[in-house]
Amino acid sequence: MQYSKDDIQKEILKAAEKVFLENGFPKASMREIAQEAQVGLSNIYNYFKSKDDIFCTVVRPVISAFERMLHEHHGRYGADIMEMYSTESLCKNLRRYIELLVLRIFMERN
C-alpha cells in the first residue's frame, strides 16, 4: 500500500510527539522518531530540516491554542494586556494549559 505525503508527515509528527513526551526534547533522536513512525531516517529529512523543525511543528498548535486562550481571557474578563503577558500570569496560564494537555493525553491513552 502506498501512503500519501500528508499521511507520512502526520505519522512522523505523531511519532515525534510521542518520543518528545517520553524522552524530552534533548534526549529524543531523529532515529527514534523514524523507528516510531516506521519510516527510514533519511525519509524524515524529506519532510523536516531538523529535530528543531519537527519540534516546532509539533508544538505550534499548542502555542496557538495557548495564545487564543490568553486572548479569549483578555476579551472576556477585560484583563489588562500588560498584566496578561506578565511572567506571573503567563506561568499560571501555562501551568493550567499543561494540566489540560496532560489530562487530554491521559484520556486518549485510556
TrEMBL record:
The keyword DNA-binding applies. This is TetR/AcrR family transcriptional regulator. InterPro entries: Homeodomain-like_sf (IPR009057), HTH-type_TetR-like_transc_reg (IPR050109), HTH_TetR (IPR001647). It comes from Bacteroides thetaiotaomicron. Keywords: DNA-binding. Transmembrane segments: none annotated. One of its GO terms (molecular function) is DNA-binding transcription factor activity. It comes from the Bacteria. The keyword Isomerase does not apply. Residues 29-48 bind DNA. It holds the Pfam family TetR_N. Residues 6-66 form the HTH tetR-type domain.
